[in-house]
Write a structure and sequence with these properties.
Length: 333
């Protein structure tokens, strides 16, 4: 294993030494491509294990706050709608607002939860666990999220990572509408929202991403989905190879899986395309996040990851206990 270099470079000195400055992208339509092919800071570091954090974001560029109510005294359904894909509801109890899908038996499948007063923070344990992507790519320039839900991950990265460019892909137009109305998720100069099938997006994609989150769900047991709602197409080798091709040289892709619902089959398919993998057990749930890494991601032991976690925890902006998450991680053979 390559030992972690304990040198924490400031972003300003790193960019100055490399002669690189910040860049932005123009806002586009819902299926606009991110413009440039500029290198990310992670790519510029190559296989070196130096670990630097992005500068804080400008509060003036924050996404809109969720619309009222800020507080409800009891469980309230703010909106309910049916689409071609799901029956969707937005609930609120006190300050916690949730996006849920209803199964045919009327049971609820929780997709998103936020604290309305702290909408940029990650609330659910599985969402907090997804933040481990920052252990591998602490200064991402481009992030892809497949499956929007209420938009907690795009919102989190928009707040914590300066100048990051985000693509969020969601097949259901009603989910996109509810995310905008109740969770403040709107396209802008640093975020694109693509209302289309994630599989089709990957098939046509030519961009490179430092972080990819595969969090797409359909109606459980619907045509083309397993009993947790994960699209079966995500097990196809061609799609997994498309995800690998969409990574920057030092990028990682994180798959949100359910241990009790086709986990073995999905994990085996991922292993065929991503020889180097890590896994995170989400505390208190049946969920597992499998992380596939690109070729130039440095070899990182659990001790290396723990050192990186300590740096992220000390920074304090993320609101995630990275050190605890490392304790839930393991390298997969």
């Amino acid at each position: 294993m390559r030992p972690l270099a304990c040198l924490l470079l400031s972003v300003g000195s790193l960019l100055g030494a490399l002669g690189c400055g910040p860049g932005g992208a123009e806002a586009g339509g819902r299926s606009a491509e991110l413009g440039s092919a500029r290198e990310s800071p992670a790519e510029r570091m190559g296989a070196a294990a130096e670990f630097s954090l992005p500068p804080p974001t400008d509060e003036r560029s924050a996404l809109p706050a969720p619309q009222p109510p800020a507080l409800t005294r009891e469980q309230t359904v703010l909106e309910a709608a049916s689409s071609d894909f799901s029956v969707i509801q937005v609930h609120q109890h006190r300050r916690r607002r949730s996006l849920v899908f209803l199964r045919d038996d009327k049971s609820e499948l929780l997709q998103t939860a936020i604290d309305v007063n702290r909408a940029d923070s990650l609330v659910l344990p599985y969402a907090q666990a997804q933040a481990v992507g920052l252990l591998f790519a602490p200064e991402p320039s481009r992030v892809l999220v497949l499956g929007l839900g209420g938009g907690t991950l795009p919102r989190f990265f928009h707040r914590t990572t300066a100048e990051v460019e985000i693509d969020a892909v969601e097949i259901d137009p009603m989910v996109v509408q509810m995310a905008a109305k109740w969770f403040g998720i709107q396209a802008g100069p640093r975020m694109r929202i693509h209302t289309e099938d994630a599989i089709a997006f990957i098939e046509r994609n030519h961009q490179k991403y430092d972080l990819i989150f595969v969090d797409a769900f359909l109606e459980p047991n619907a045509d083309g989905a397993d009993n947790s709602g994960i699209p079966l197409a995500l097990r196809k080798r061609a799609i997994l190879e498309g995800l690998r091709a969409s990574l920057s040289p030092v990028g990682v892709v994180l798959f949100n899986l359910h241990f009790r619902s086709g986990y073995a089959e999905q994990a085996a398919a991922i292993a065929e395309v991503f020889p180097r993998r890590y896994m995170v057990k989400v505390a208190g749930t049946s969920q597992r996040h499998v992380i596939g890494v690109a070729d130039r991601v440095p070899e990182l032991s659990m001790d290396d990851l723990a050192e990186r976690a300590a740096i992220l925890d000390k920074d304090g902006r993320f609101g995630v206990d990275f050190s605890a998450l490392v304790g839930q991680m393991s390298a997969l053979d």
